Amino acid sequence: MTVIEGHFLDGLSSKRIAARLAFSPQQPQLVTLHLDHQADTPTRIETQLKDLRIHSRLGSTPREIALADKQLFITDDHQAIESWLKLAKSKQRSGWLHKLENSLPTICFATLATAVALWACFTFGIPAAANFIAFKLPEFAQKKLASSLVLLDKTIFQPSELSAERQLALLELSQPILANYSELNPKIYFRSGMGANALALPNGEIVFTDALVNLVEDDKELLAVLFHELGHLQGRHIIRRVLQDSMVTLVVIIATGDIDTLDLLTGLPTLILDLSYSRDFETEADDFALHAMHQHGIHPQYFATVMQRFAQLDNNSKKQRAKDKPLRDILSTHPPTSERIQKAQQHAPTTAP
Q: Is the pTM of this model over 0.70?
């Protein structure tokens, strides 16, 4: 008689009872389960192998054998179970899944394949999906995702200190350009705050800060920035970024299966992915701006010049952090300024402005 040690669960409570599964090598299909409620009162359950459901082996976790009425026999003696099933010529023996789990080459291949799949998902899948969804969203959904200028006025911006005449002159200069992109519903506003900057909100609002207006020496440099912001609107970059951030978070949750570790796992890796996406959007907006400037007869040197002004402004304010430049380059949301200037100069005709 062959005996396999384990525990019995009656299906009514979580209490485990010491038990022994016994069978004869001559008749392995006939099974007797000996239960020890107390040392002097053993209980027997007689059954047949065909009436048992033997769960597949999963690593070193205890093996479960299901009896009638939700009863279970549990054992850690995997080798004895496999020998019994082999002797009985049962089809419930461990299959290909267990063999794969114990194959080092298979484990290495699966790990590599998972890493490649995640890389492809973050690099190609998520941006492509966000791009597709962004251009399918109805207008009301875009506005729900978008930050409004009203909210920014409450938190970041102050009223512009530019004179009414200066604002009117810039609006009149920009109006013919905005009219050519009426499908984007662009509107220009001036605000104080955020330093020398500009931003485009998904509802078409484009904000120029006072510091940016005061930074340039030629208004055509502002037009170069305007074209760049129109590029963000055309590409629906803010909406795509919101969608991509959400998808990255969702993929991390699915991959780990544990939302409690989300803050840790979506820290630096998610930040770097997000900044990488931002650099892609900035490159798209630059390409749009240079192409549009050419169409409107504005020399791309104005784009290069305003980029140089941004670079000089950044250098003046951050000289003390020069030793951290490699890290700032990695974590920059914009492509390197030198690359942007070089691209503008490559678009320039032989005649200077």
A: no
